[in-house]
Amino acid sequence: MAVDAKVAKEIIAKRVAMELKHGQLVNLGIGLPTLVANYIPKDVYVTLQSENGMVGMGPTPEAGKEDRHITNAGGQYVTINNNGAFFDTAMSFSLIRGGHVDITVLGALEVDEKGNLSNWIIPGKLVPGMGGAMDLVTGAKKVIVAMQHTAKGDLKIKKACQLPLTAKGQVDMIVTELAVMEVTEKGLLLKEIHKETTVDEVIKLTEADLIIDENLKVMDL
Amino acid sequence: MAVDAKVAKEIIAKRVAMELKHGQLVNLGIGLPTLVANYIPKDVYVTLQSENGMVGMGPTPEAGKEDRHITNAGGQYVTINNNGAFFDTAMSFSLIRGGHVDITVLGALEVDEKGNLSNWIIPGKLVPGMGGAMDLVTGAKKVIVAMQHTAKGDLKIKKACQLPLTAKGQVDMIVTELAVMEVTEKGLLLKEIHKETTVDEVIKLTEADLIIDENLKVMDL
Amino acid sequence: MNKVVDYSVIKSLLRDGMTLMIGGFLGCGTPEGIIDLIIEMDLKNLTVICNDTSFVDKGIGKLIANGNAKKVITSHIGTNSESGKRMNEGSLEVELSPQGTLIERIRAAGSGLGGVITPTGVGTLVEEGKEKILLNGKEYLIEMPLKADVALVYASKVDPFGNCYYQGTTRNFNPIIALAADTVIVEAEEVVEVGQLNPEVVMTPGVLVDYIVKGDF
Amino acid sequence: MNKVVDYSVIKSLLRDGMTLMIGGFLGCGTPEGIIDLIIEMDLKNLTVICNDTSFVDKGIGKLIANGNAKKVITSHIGTNSESGKRMNEGSLEVELSPQGTLIERIRAAGSGLGGVITPTGVGTLVEEGKEKILLNGKEYLIEMPLKADVALVYASKVDPFGNCYYQGTTRNFNPIIALAADTVIVEAEEVVEVGQLNPEVVMTPGVLVDYIVKGDF
């Protein structure tokens, strides 16, 4: 299955959106995870958090209506819904680390079959810092990694992460354009594949061992 | 020197008030310490904290003007000045334990020459609890014990507190109707006495050893 | 989302033996209607976490006087004669925690922190049975987090989503306990429409709140 | 008490080698005028504690690009290419702290707590050189408090006594750093009269503030 990045991201965002349940508090990471907001079903009301200090984050403001006092964790202008709330960073991370965030969706450089995640540093090359990612991954009730299955041919779903970890054993689910995998005590459980791929292709593009779910499904997008 | 409780308290409150400096944040305990507010010089602006959640506490409201949403740490109706602020208990104790309160004034059951204080429990007899006193005594920059020199003839200023402590070695100053004493590394330094008492009387009514200040003064009330 | 319910729903959420956190400081900022409901239900063996046990006839104090609590974790019981009496009789267990420590223990539980490192209580009875730690040459106690099954929160104003605003000193423990319980119930003086509360002045975000009941203050 | 001064007074408070905490999240809620003042003064060897190093041409980012800082304690430097470059060259020391840990370390210093007991960072590079503690069967890191000589706080509105109000997401680190520095300087978009801010919506009590300057935003 060969799709371009744009299509891949759309598949991933759509599939992740299906994980969100009515009433949940959700934190969407910068980049691909942000796209998830576009696919939340109309009958599912979720509250979006931005870790710089708000819940009830609304859409991007219309051009000319930006308020420079209201930005998201990526530094972009956003809006707030009329049931939202602003607060300071300490409160924001009380929500995050305290388990009040139901789902956090993040990208990854690497993720492995034990639920380890690496997404904040490539030593000697790229040192952006962890920002709020370590707290989010440690504190959120459910951690979903949303990323393209491979990076320019390199396999990102590892037997064991080689890069420094963001958190140990905290990932619950991995969603790529090819597959949906759950981290279980026995290892990575392949639960769904995209209709245009095969189990063999997914196995080939995954370094980690995969347990094939006996109820393996096709992604229902 | 024999004075009734009312006069004694007035002397103590007046003398403590002289310790307050312009711009300070001050917490006055329930009872006698509250009276200090009545004697703050007009040219000294201090901010009063109430540990239940405000700074800028104002006077008791006029009868009929009480707002049941505004009470002090003793549960009584109070007012707030127009430069005051309300906050939650966590913030209130960040101010207290974090050293932002310049002076706390409290009563004592016993206080000793090492600056130990007992004021929250008489085992088997009276167990009110420590409330915010332990945090106040531990966190405030300066701790002043304001109390009558003796209790029905019992000496309250001890060589060593017998009752369970509120905090260890945190008291800086003791003000009674008879004397002003400072806790120093060498022991209790007698700095001032009331004009109607004598050093001998103070020594007699104090179990702790007293070092007599070479500049011993008469309280200037 | 409208979380406003009536007291019959609140009734279905409360049970004997629960651990409750209740807002209020000497009765100011306490959800009185829910207190009365508990007394009417005559719940037993409650563990109550609160700043103080108020007065015999006010707020949390009524639960003590009525014998609903088997244990109270609090900073002060001196204003309620029933607390001391029942403690001495052995019918009420009292765990005293310094006020600043108590609120930080609740905040720690609600904020995913493993404990509180505080200087308060060092060298006193409070340190009994607790781990001590030396950091930068200073001694501290490690105090453990406090969680509850249900938080009973008072609010002056609430919108149907659960955003809370607290007037004056009613705030006290309320926004902190709203972080630290499995179920958060708000009793409010006034229920306002969504949009009536400016997001900048919301003191407890509605996402923390599960149920709202309109009180009669 | 009127704490409003002009920039010349602020200038007299700042020196080479100081440790500064500065509010802002990717430039939102940063006292830009004081940043420009530091650049004009060309202060050296500053230690800067902040959420992130912003962008090369915005807020705290300018201090990095201008070489005023010898060390930064922060959670993210990825949006400012100068931060990484200077770190690799060895002219800027970077201590990375997870965002939630960073703000709690500042809060701990400002609240008189001896440290922070957090699960964040366990099993990662963040735990290097730090004490670990096992509480209730779970592993935590003990993270140390962070203090500063001066906190540079942005406020949307301030009254002359120092009471601050933060609009929108400008709040971020500002109310917390105001607790943790010897001297607290507020740069505000608007200075309002005493009494204009409702005590219920004050987000930093004026008692914490030492100096106020009117900014030009």
Q: Which series of helices and strands of chain A comes N to C?
A: HEHEEEHEEEHEEEEEEEHE
Biggest contact: A-D, 43 and 47 residues
Oligomer: heterotetramer
The CATH level-2 architecture of chain A is identified as 3-Layer(aba) Sandwich
Q: How much strand content do the residues of chain C show?
A: 25-35%
List low-pLDDT spans of chain C.
none
Name of the CATH class of chain C: Alpha Beta
Number of domains of chain C: 1
Give me the number of helical elements of chain C. 6
From the 3D structure, determine the CATH topology of chain C: Glutaconate Coenzyme A-transferase
Largest sheet of chain C: 8 strands, mixed
Structural class of the helices, strands and pairings of chain A? alpha/beta
Q: Could you give a short account of the major beta sheet of chain A? A: 10 strands, mixed
Helical content band of chain C: 10-25%
- Give the beta-strand count of chain C: 11
Q: In sequence order, what are the helices and strands of chain C, one letter per element?
A: HEHEHEHEHEEEEEHEE
Quick structural overview:
The complex is a heterotetramer, with two copies of chain A (221 residues) and two copies of chain C (217 residues). With 221 residues, chain A is of the alpha/beta class.
Question: Can you tag this structure with a few keywords?
Answer:
heterotetramer, A: 221 residues, alpha/beta, Glutaconate Coenzyme A-transferase, ten-stranded mixed beta sheet, three-stranded mixed beta sheet, 5 helices, C: 217 residues, three-stranded antiparallel beta sheet, 11 strands
Description:
The complex is a heterotetramer, with two copies of chain A (221 residues) and two copies of chain C (217 residues). With 221 residues, chain A is α/β, with parallel strands linked by helices. Chain A has a single domain, classed as 3-Layer(aba) Sandwich (Glutaconate Coenzyme A-transferase), CATH 3.40.1080.10. Chain A has helices spanning 5-17, 32-35, 89-97, 133-139, 199-204; strands at residues 25-28, 47-50, 54-58, 79-86, 103-106, 110-112, 117-118, 142-146, 150-151, 154-155, 157-158, 173-175, 179-184, 187-193, 210-218. Chain A starts with a helix and ends with a strand. The relative contact order of chain A is 0.16. Chain C is of the alpha/beta class and 217 residues long. Chain C has a single domain, classed as Glutaconate Coenzyme A-transferase. Chain C has helices at residues 7-13, 32-41, 60-65, 81-89, 99-110, 174-177; strands at residues 19-22, 46-49, 69-74, 93-96, 116-118, 132-135, 138-143, 148-158, 164-165, 181-191, 211-214. Chains B and C meet through helix 3 and helix 4 of B and helix 5 and helix 6 of C.
